[in-house]
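WARN retry 2 of 3 for item q-0093 after timeout on previous attempt; input resubmitted unchanged.
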Amino acid sequence: MGRSSNLESRNHHKQRKSFFVSCGDEKMFTIKKTKGFSLIELMITLLIAAIIIAMGLPQLRDMSNAIRFANLQQNLISNLLYARSEAVKNGSNTLACASINGSSCSANSTNWNQGWIIFTDDNNNGVFDSGADTLRRSQIIESIASITWSNTTPVVFEGDGTVNNTSSGTFLICDSQATSTIARGVSMNLSGRVRSTDSVVCP
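OK item q-0093 returned
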């Protein structure tokens, strides 16, 4: 009886000892598990992330500008081809000129930044007057880009699809904020052919 009691006492002591060891191990494990970044490690991580982002920003900006300029280029080409097709269809002159207000040609005909209008010129006077029929108005909302026409007169498509002597030239699409060297162009020859070109350099 006494021997059995002593055995139970020893077993109980071992269980208590095992319990405390387990608690101690669990406590040690918990401490290791909750250990995180130190302040210095966190600052280094943030610094590296900031450097990577800063290095990538110019490439992201150039990519964004390239997409915007390509869209402007295609928009301008589409409008010029439309003006040419209308001239051929109607057998009369169709003009495209820079316009700020959408109701008259701009005094500065080389600056197409804010848009343009396309109209018929039945009396062949080269002026947007009361007798002109407006075919299309386009407004530009891309303030980041500048569109410059190489001539000082409107684009004149004649009834056979050709352009007059003052209407062959190049439109230059550039970054108005000078933060990018990306440039796009739209050129026209005397036959009235309109095509895109990337072999241009912004001033």
